[in-house]
């Protein structure tokens, strides 16, 4: 296995990856990838091993970490917008953010180009008549999940309904 930075060995990222995979281990014919350890308790977050030598594993971790970063940045921007100015926001740093990171975020969030892009995105989002509820999973994944062995592949209407209506839990 390749050398992995210590911050990635912490287990939080691997637990997040396990949650993203739905607690399932994808098949790995070449012996690489995620390996479940049947001796550990299911759902502990430490019951699989990532092989960072495999491109697929690195891409999966990068994709999940990019999504986590994007969500965290959105949370920080929402906090930033509560205040009238950059100086006021700087004095109200979120507790889970370092001073250096909060200063960098406030610099970014106060740039006119960032403010304009945010305004455009907010307006575009408000114009949507139908909101997508399928998450980040591809339509192919939803189609396969809806597939019934007796009926076959779901219709386009079924797929649209699944990915554009509120979830019923």
From TrEMBL:
PANTHER family: OS10G0409366 PROTEIN-RELATED, TRANSPOSASE, PTTA_EN_SPM, PLANT-RELATED. Residues 33-47 have a biased composition (Basic and acidic residues). This is Uncharacterized protein. Residues 22-47, 145-169 are annotated as: Disordered. It comes from Morella rubra (Chinese bayberry). It comes from the Eukaryota. InterPro entries: Probable_transposase_24 (IPR004252).
């Amino acid at each position: 296995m390749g050398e992995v930075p210590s911050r990635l060995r912490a287990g939080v990222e691997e637990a997040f990856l396990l949650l993203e995979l739905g607690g399932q281990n994808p098949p790995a014919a070449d012996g690489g990838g995620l390996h479940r350890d049947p001796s550990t308790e299911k759902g502990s977050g430490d019951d699989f091993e990532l092989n960072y030598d495999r491109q697929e594993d690195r891409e999966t971790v990068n994709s999940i970490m990019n999504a986590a970063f994007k969500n965290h940045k959105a949370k920080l921007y929402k906090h930033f917008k509560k205040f009238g100015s950059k100086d006021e926001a700087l004095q109200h740093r979120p507790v889970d953010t370092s001073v250096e990171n909060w200063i960098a975020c406030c610099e970014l969030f106060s740039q006119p180009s960032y403010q304009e892009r945010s305004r455009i995105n907010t307006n575009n989002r408000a114009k949507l008549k139908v909101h997508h509820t399928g998450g980040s999973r591809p339509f192919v994944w939803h189609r396969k999940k809806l597939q019934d062995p007796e009926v076959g592949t779901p219709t386009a209407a079924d797929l649209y309904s699944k990915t554009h209506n509120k979830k019923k839990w």
